[in-house]
Amino acid sequence: MLTLSIVVGRAHPEMLARTELWIRRTLPEPVKVFYRLFRLMATPAPGASPSLPQPLLDGCRVLESRSEILNRLDKGSVGIEVGTFRGDFAAEMLRRVEPRELHLVDVTFANLRADVRDDPRVHLHGGLSVEVLAGFPDEHFDWAYIDGDHSYAAVRADIEAAWSKVRPGGLLIFNDFARYNQPGFGAFGVHKAVCEFVRDRRWPVVFWAFNGEALYDIALRRPDAPPA
Question: How many whole angstroms separate alpha carbon 19 and alpha carbon 226?
Fold first, then answer.
């Protein structure tokens, strides 16, 4: 496991994704935790994030928590959560948003709580997030919540797979919008990947939510029309 994590930056991304899928589906939970820790330790820190253009921030509302973002989503909407683990936040989505459909994506649902699994509005999609997202038609979702692999490359891949699946006016929401880089503990690339997307695609930031340990949530709204 240690050997695999040390070469993580040099291996082919698809091979790494397949290896991750096998690990999370087959190995005992303590071994999976050990693997994830060592993989984070071997992940190189991303470069500096670009500044966000002020016009794309002018309409942003600051909220006390990510739960408040859910309170502002449309009742009866169609949403997707990429990376659900036990389904604790998915349960909150079901309660606060009352979605018509909630699609959950993860490589395994072995830890998913029963009340979420058994809810008739929930649709489970096991597999690699990029491949699962590719199976949906464009503009299918009212909102997408991205909480998968937090490495820079993985977040970039999830963004590219997810943004076209959100309808114009819909939201793309990210958990742990932070540049977390602690030697020996790992590196998050969410901040850099999201800032680059905002800069390049010109999606306005509509919500920024406090969370513990400065791991904030951020919500972007898909423009009704592409930028000129």
Answer: 37
